[in-house]
Design goal:
Layout lengths: L2 H12 L7 H7 L3 H11 L8 E5 L5 H8 L3 E5 L3 H10 L6 E4 L2 E2 L4 E7 L11 H7 L12 E8 L1 H8 L4 E4 L5 H6 L7 E7 L3 H14 L3 E6 L13 H10 L6 E7 L13
Parallel strand pairs: 1-2, 1-7, 2-3, 4-6, 7-8
Antiparallel strand pairs: 5-6, 8-10, 9-10
Organism: Micromonospora nigra
Pfam family, one: Methyltransf_21
InterPro entries: FkbM_mtfrase, SAM-dependent_MTase, SAM-dependent_MTases_sf
């Protein structure tokens, strides 16, 4: 992290207007060891000069990793407060393009459920909000307001910016809707899953298989460490996700289309 970026983050941490982002900024920035682990992990999927889509950018720590790896980044984020942070942190970086929208199945708009105290779990999925009620590990989470946000499809992003080498999708239970707006395989992507909404992950796997993705692995939580260390078929990944304990909470499934990528020789972990 450069001194300039560190100063911008410190200003956001001290700004009362962005107080609800303080926890995210504290966790996701300022830890060189975490940054190094993230960079080493994504270096297997992202090369200098690549285009990357970061769908659900939040405060942009993944944007930072992709930029350190030399990639161009299209960062998609609907929350005004997060967009304020992204604009501040990546001001002047012409290799980062901010798209002020949610991703979904069709262009238009969607009602977005905001968790003011914990914006990282704000979501466009009303089902996700209902699933969290009474669930272990989700105690105290409250989605206390709603906003209308524009929706863009992944296909539209591809048409405007080009085919990404990698797309990260982290949208709190709306991942299946995002993938419904994609009509072609990409070299690689990841989508978040949660144990309170496993059916969303299963629909994602079905959609990705239909699109031609044929290799899958998974990393639990924020740990950038693959479970299988090889690309397994969708049915094996589905069986694994179904049997995970509730306490596993969340993770990211990594997916490749090996016929369309030259970076498919084994797992990404």
């Amino acid at each position: 992290m450069t001194d300039t970026v560190a100063a911008r983050i410190a200003a956001l941490q001290d700004d009362p207007a962005t107080a609800s982002l303080r926890r995210s900024l504290d966790v996701y920035y300022g830890d060189p060891e975490r940054d190094a682990r993230m960079d080493a992990f994504y270096a297997r999927l992202v090369a200098p000069g690549d285009l990357v889509f970061d769908i659900g950018s939040h405060v942009g720590d993944h944007v930072g990793s992709f930029r350190r790896l030399g990639a161009r980044v299209v960062a998609v984020e609907p929350q005004p407060l997060c967009l304020r942070a992204l604009r501040a942190i990546y001001a002047g970086d012409d290799q980062v393009t901010l798209v002020e929208a949610a991703c979904g199945a069709v262009a238009g708009s969607v009602r977005f459920h905001v968790n003011s105290a914990n914006p990282t779990v704000s979501t466009a999925s009303s089902h996700f909000v209902r699933a969290a009620v009474g669930a272990g590990g989700w105690e105290g989470e409250v989605w206390d307001s709603e906003i209308e946000v524009p929706v863009v499809t992944v296909d539209a992003l591809v048409e405007q910016y080009g085919v990404p080498a990698f797309a990260k999708i982290d949208v709190e239970g709306f991942e299946d809707a995002v993938l419904a707006g994609l009509s072609r395989p990409l070299p690689a992507l990841s989508f978040e899953f949660t144990t309170i909404a496993r059916e969303v992950a299963l629909r994602c796997l079905d959609r990705l298989t239909a699109l031609g993705f044929d290799g899958f692995d998974v990393a639990l939580g924020d740990d950038k460490s693959m479970t299988f260390e090889s690309w397994v078929p969708a049915h094996e990944m589905a069986a694994h996700l179904v049997t995970l304990p509730h306490e596993a909470n969340s993770g990211d499934v990594y997916c490749v289309s090996r016929s369309g990528s030259d970076r498919s020789g084994g797992g990404a972990g």
